[in-house]
Amino acid sequence: MISKKLQGTGVALITPFDKQQGIDAAALERLVQHLTQGGVDYLVALGTTAEPPTLSQSEKSEILAQIKRYNTARLPLVVGIGGNSTADVTAQIGQTDFDGVDALLSITPYYNKPPQQGLYEHYKAIAAASPVPVILYNVPSRTGVNLLPETVLRLAKEVPNIAAIKEASGNVAQVAAILRGKPADFAVISGDDGLTVPLISLGAQGLISVVGNAFPAATSAMVKAALQGDFATAAQWQLTLLPITEACFAEGNPVGVKAALSVLGLVQNYLRLPLVPASPALIERIKQCVQALKERTAL
Questions:
Q1: Of 137, 182, 258, 270, which is the active-site residue?
Q2: With bands split at pLDDT 50, 70 and 90, how would you rate the model's confidence at 2?
Q3: Within a 10 A sphere around the Cβ of 81, how many other Cβ atoms?
Q4: pTM of the full predicted structure?
Q5: Rounded CA gap, 265 and 277, in Å?
Q6: Which of 60, 124, 166, 224 is catalytic?
Q7: Residue 137 designated active-site
Q8: Cα separation, 262 vs 247, whole angstroms
Q9: How confident is the model at residue 298 (pLDDT cuts 50, 70, 90)?
Q10: 166 contacts 133 by C-beta, under 8 angstroms
Q11: Is the pLDDT score of 1 beyond 80?
Q12: pLDDT for residue 294
């Protein structure tokens, strides 16, 4: 069952670039090894943290193939495919090699702001086109549209190939409404690093993390403690990670986490326009956070 594979900590991988703006394959391999050694439970390729609007279809295929190759521990693998044209998304699904892929993560359409019925039909079409289970992805701060609980529950109950939601609305009451009404085999996953422990306390089964790119061991320890019901330990981890979490999102994602990874020596700090590297002030703040985390956790 796919919900069991999505238990625990997933990480939405960044896309490392080199100075020439090409894909840095060596850095991507280091990153996958870093996450594996840090104890994460599954990998998410080509999510919003990977800067997919700036990637060509051939680059996306290359990145997915590289992650499969570097995933020597055979962690479950989720691939992100989304957009604001349903026909384009289903076409991309048809062009994707799903060998070795366990699930598809698809963001709500952005910019055109469809009504709830349009969102329902969009995901119904994606589920029909996908050879693997589909994870809904709700992040209204990025897309301008909110996938409401009643629509999520309708999809969960009426469309067999829809298996989970990554919920990043930042609205705890909204997530609680989904958890209260969902089918038993439908997974609810936190999409907010900073709300992980509260959402797991309500019944979410883990996190798809951004900060986990840089600090997989600490992020995994937080999620594991919460899932085991040790909320005192989980809360300590949540609070310990709070400064780096806030810094990672201070100038947008993946701006902050790429800066943190560059401070750790894992990737070069390059992004593709319209994103730009973190400001000098934020980089200094991140350096201080990284040092403090190392001193407090020995990670």
A1: 137
A2: confident
A3: 26
A4: 0.96
A5: 15
A6: 166
A7: yes
A8: 14
A9: low
A10: no
A11: no
A12: 85
